[in-house]
Design goal:
Mean pLDDT: 85
Oligomer: single chain
CATH architecture of the largest domain: 2-Layer Sandwich
Number of strands: 23
CATH class of the largest domain: Alpha Beta
Number of domains: 4
CATH superfamily of the largest domain: Histidine kinase-like ATPase, C-terminal domain
Largest sheet: 9 strands, mixed
Helix content: 25-40%
Structural class: alpha+beta
Strand order of the largest sheet: 1-6-5-4-7-3-2-8-9
Radius of gyration: 32 Å
């Protein structure tokens, strides 16, 4: 088909759904369409600046970048125009007809059908260009890519239903014009004062001038009339270069929405000018909600990089470590070259210094919330932890220089609480350790319930010793890289020969040693019955109510981690567990006199220990048959 022919194409399915949601969910905040379109126009101008660093010809005769907003009462249209990078025909189809964003599927699966709740979800996902259809029943986009001839512009048009049209047209200047044909009842946007107030409310921080036709009073008609001159509506300077005392909280919040393309206010932020060996400004925000692509470590994450207030790139991931990929904001360097590329960023020592400085600043900001003595600060940190805690945990193994600081920010569930939401910091755990306790105890499992009900906790509950319950997948990574905190070593309750040190009295030790000697023959028989399924069988003093449990050697991989690796399709070493049996349990005591079905009882002790720690049996049907046979045998014998 010729590219000069008007072509009608269908929207991506997700776009149709998003359009319907926005039209019906964001009706109470319709004015955000102007913020989003101005933000897009600003981005387009930033991209032209960046590309023109290596190709100044893209500017042509038009080097003054700006954004224009105009309205036509008679035609009932509002137009937002820029002289930025523009779109080619292919780019118009790609960017305006599809949602090329990771997390799309998760976004739609999270929608509830509740308009108020879905409005917040839409804000997390980003509103963007499609917010036009909140107030418009038809949108026309005319755009010409910088570098293309005037007769190679593209006209994109849609009524926001199932399809859109594209055709090649002519446009004298580069850039993009978005014209909104307003729905019935939206005439309040055909007013200069209304549009200017929205611009000043949401877009005052935009670094480019936002121009509107000036007005003057017409005495004869007793109304405002065009003055014939353009008027700059916004302050048009880089907000981050201004002093903190000169920036209001509302301005900080609106700048965040622009830079992060978020609908909600940020949770908190930090703004600083760094001087010394490197000079740069950092304005870094922590969002209130996690984005849908948070767990995609390959997605572009990071802050915007500016050099001497000239935009260089979005998502400069080298400026922020991966475990802080949720941070949004800008870094403006006075030292980097204007033609800095992603490749140069990877090798630059200046970038490494900026990266370390940004990480320290964000961690200090989080510390101020975590250590806050007022309820508001504590509530903010609780919210942060709920949204980003699992990601922050990655930093224990990724950022050696800040490991101790990151560890101090971590929160864990424990046996001193009933829900996973009730957490404790390592510092607080140490503060309430039992007298004589020398280690921080923890157990790992696939779920909170599995950790909470682990048989390994029985002796700890009996003695009132707190144990951390680690059920996040990343927790195995944490304890693998964090051997101690504040001088106290971390110890798995499911590894090694349990040594409670001063918490265990002489009578208990003597009783354990006596039981080990008394059950020596039984232990050898159980080991023979189980064969290669276990490395060792021994008497335990971990258990008070369960008959058996599985443990690992101190430096062996835990069973939980081995299962996680296998589930992810990775190779895990075939480490045989140690079976510990409880000599006080009736099932174990029965084994001393059992002759006919000894192997079945021994297998049962092993298999229920596997199930108790969340493992899978090699022969579930055999396990069920063994249970049934043993119950029938007990019933027949009258036991």
């Amino acid at each position: 088909m010729s590219t000069t022919t008007k072509e009608t194409l269908g929207f991506q399915a997700e776009v149709k759904q998003l359009l319907q949601l926005m039209i019906h969910s964001l009706y109470s905040n319709k004015e955000i369409f102007l913020r989003e379109l101005i933000s897009n126009a600003s981005d387009a101008c930033d991209k032209l600046r960046f590309e023109a660093l290596n190709n100044a010809a893209l500017y042509g005769d038009d080097t003054e970048l700006s954004i224009r907003v105009r309205f036509d009462k008679a035609a009932r249209t509002v137009t937002i125009a820029d002289n930025g990078i523009g779109l080619s025909r292919e780019e118009a189809i790609e960017h305006l007809g599809t949602i090329a964003k990771s997390g799309t599927r998760e976004f739609f699966s999270a929608l509830t059908g509740d308009q108020a709740k879905d409005a917040h979800l839409i804000g997390q996902f980003g509103v963007g260009f499609y917010s036009s259809f909140i107030v418009a029943d038809k949108v026309t986009v005319v755009s010409r890519r910088a570098g293309l001839p005037a007769d190679q512009a593209v006209c994109w048009e849609s009524g926001g239903e199932g399809d859109f049209s594209v055709e090649i047209t002519a446009k004298a200047e580069r850039g993009t014009e978005v014209t909104l044909h307003l729905r019935e009842g939206e005439d309040d946007f055909l007013d200069a004062w209304r549009l200017k107030s929205i611009i000043r409310k949401y877009s005052d921080h935009i670094t480019l001038p936002i121009l509107m036709a000036g007005e003057k009073w017409d005495e004869e008609k007793k109304e405002q009339a065009p003055s014939g001159e353009d008027e700059t509506v916004n302050q048009a300077n880089a907000l981050w270069t201004r002093g903190k005392a000169d920036i209001s909280e509302a301005e900080y919040q609106e700048f965040y929405k622009h830079v992060a393309h978020d609908f909600e206010n940020p949770l908190t932020w930090t703004h600083a000018r760094v001087e010394g060996k490197q000079e740069y400004i950092q304005l870094l925000y922590i969002p209130a909600r996690a984005p849908f692509d948070l767990w995609d470590r390959n997605a572009r994450h990071g802050v915007k990089l500016y050099v001497k207030r000239v935009f260089i790139m979005d998502d400069a991931e080298k400026l922020m470590p991966l475990y802080l990929r949720f941070v949004r904001g800008v870094v403006d360097s006075a030292d980097l070259p204007l033609n800095v590329s992603r490749e140069i960023l990877q090798e630059s020592r200046d970038i490494e210094s900026i990266r370390n400085g940004c990480a320290r600043k964000v961690l200090a900001l989080l510390e101020s919330l975590a250590d806050s003595e007022d309820a508001a600060g504590q509530a903010q940190y609780t919210q942060f932890w709920g949204e980003f805690g699992k990601v922050l945990k990655e930093g224990v193994g990724e950022d050696f220089a800040n490991k101790e600081k990151i560890a101090g920010l971590l929160r864990f569930a424990s046996t001193h609480a009933d829900t996973p939401e009730e957490t404790v910091a390592l510092k607080a755990y140490i503060g309430r350790m039992k007298e004589g306790q020398e280690k921080i105890y923890y157990v790992t499992a696939e779920t909170f319930k599995a950790a909470q009900n682990s048989p390994h906790l029985e002796i700890f509950r009996k003695k009132g010793i707190e144990v951390l319950l680690l059920s996040d997948k990343v927790d195995e990574w944490v304890v693998g890289n964090l051997s101690e905190f504040d001088g106290k070593s971390l110890q798995s309750v499911a590894k090694g020969g349990l040594d409670l040190g001063k918490l265990e009295d002489a009578a208990e030790k003597e009783e354990t040693e006596k039981a080990a000697e008394e059950y020596k023959t039984l232990i050898e028989r159980v080991k023979t019955a189980l064969g290669e399924r276990v490395k060792e069988v021994r008497v335990t003093h971990r258990l008070t109510g369960s008959p058996s449990c599985l443990v690992s050697e101190d430096f062996d991989m835990s069973g939980n981690l081995a299962r996680m690796l296998k589930a992810a399709g990775q190779n895990a070493p075939d480490v045989k567990p140690i079976l510990e049996i409880n000599p006080q349990h009736p099932a174990v005591q029965r084994l001393k006199t059992e002759e006919t079905r000894f192997d079945d009882w021994a297998a049962l002790l092993f298999e229920q220990a596997v199930l108790a720690e969340g493992g899978q049996l090699e022969d579930p049907a055999g396990f069920v048959k063994r249970i049934n046979d043993l119950m029938l045998a007990l019933s027949a014998s009258g036991q």
